[in-house]
Design brief:
single chain, alpha+beta, five-stranded mixed beta sheet, 5 helices, binds zinc ion
Amino acid sequence: MSDRIHCDKHGETKQTMVCAHIVQTVRDKEPRGFAWCLANDGFLYADCTSCNALSSDEWHAQADENGRILCFGCFQEAASLNGVALGDQARSYLQ
Ligand SMILES: [Zn+2]
Ligand SMILES: [Zn+2]
């Protein structure tokens, strides 16, 4: 699968999909909420609190503009900045 990206900080990792605000959290270390899931398509997704509060229609309307690819290492950093433990499900993502 070509689902790997190169991160300057974490090297080559698997990619995840997040909202732009979570990318912002990785940059400025400011927690904005972290609602994550392992989707049926096998991708890890995470949204901040405000994006997670959108209705499904609203979410899809903004997803193209607001969606970002993030490396798995940065995804973990954003989770821990928000005090969220990813657990075994996410750890198995790397295998
Ligand atoms: Zn967001
Ligand atoms: Zn990274």
